[in-house]
Design brief:
Pfam families: Astacin
CATH architecture of the largest domain: 3-Layer(aba) Sandwich
Structural class: alpha/beta
Radius of gyration: 17 Å
Organism: Rotaria sordida
CATH superfamily of the largest domain: Collagenase (Catalytic Domain)
GO molecular function: metalloendopeptidase activity; zinc ion binding
Number of domains: 2
InterPro entries: Astacin-like_dom, MetalloPept_cat_dom_sf, Peptidase_M12A, Peptidase_Metallo
Strand content: 15-25%
Helix content: 10-25%
CATH topology of the largest domain: Collagenase (Catalytic Domain)
CATH class of the largest domain: Alpha Beta
Order of helices and strands: EEEHEEEEHEEH
Protein name: Metalloendopeptidase
């Protein structure tokens, strides 16, 4: 079946909550904040991420979710660790809400920080890792300030009302960690994200990479550069 198109799932950018808005399809921000507010949140202290998995998930669903966490811990040599909620003041509250979404980074000072994986569409290795990386503090790759050198946004193919999902940040709003643009990033949109007609909404244009459209947003693992950025952000050895 391959990796599902996260940004063309039926409920992407939709939620039945009044306390949040979703930007870029799957990043939650408080309803009273604008798009820029959530860029100010940082990493989880000491790389420790407490979490709670709701009982609505089956045993196999829970295994897929915790396997995603274990993968990140293994890749960072346990520099980033996911632990039981316990008595921690803030934790990821992972539940099957409407859509696949997360806040970006640690946004709470106390209580549950919601993280939604709708059943069954969001229970996929690539989708789970993508959302975990949002929770760890990462934006979408194609929102980098330098993205227009690497991709073309075909606005005529974007679903009406979804154009804002293709906005980009300024250099002062995001940290690129000194890395090059990464078409293979698990945080990259697919070429047909939010397409109204099945035609590409985003295309690779950098010389020598024009054929990378088939790679964008279709990975089921962190790319090499995803891991480099993750380690830099969390000061991993």
């Amino acid at each position: 079946m391959g990796v599902p198109n996260l940004f063309n799932l039926p409920n992407i950018s939709k939620n039945n909550r009044t306390d949040i808005n979703l930007v870029e399809g799957d990043i939650a921000i408080p309803a009273d904040k604008n798009r820029i507010a959530f860029t100010q949140h940082g990493p989880w202290p000491n790389g420790i991420v407490p979490y709670e998995l709701h009982g609505y998930f089956s045993a196999s669903h829970k295994t897929m979710i915790t396997n995603g966490m274990k993968k990140i811990s293994e890749l960072t040599n346990n520099c980033i660790r996911f632990v039981d909620r316990g008595s921690n003041r803030v934790w990821l509250n992972i539940y099957p809400g409407q859509g696949c979404w997360s806040y970006m980074g640690k946004t709470k000072t106390s209580g549950a920080q919601d993280f939604s994986l709708e059943l069954p569409g969001c229970i996929d290795r690539g989708v789970i890792l993508h959302e975990i990386l949002h929770a760890l503090g990462f934006a979408h790759e194609q929102t980098r300030p330098d993205r227009d050198h690497y991709v073309r946004i075909n606005r005529q193919n974007i679903l009406s009302g979804q154009e804002h999902n293709f906005d980009r940040y300024t250099a002062s709003q995001v940290n690129m960690f000194g890395t090059a643009y990464d078409y293979a990033s698990i945080m990259h949109y697919r070429t047909d994200a939010f397409s109204r007609n099945g035609q590409p909404t985003i295309q690779a244009i950098y010389p020598g990479y024009e054929g990378w459209d088939a790679q964008m947003g279709r990975g089921s693992d962190l790319s090499a550069q995803d891991l480099v950025k993750l380690k830099k952000y969390y000061n991993c050895p």
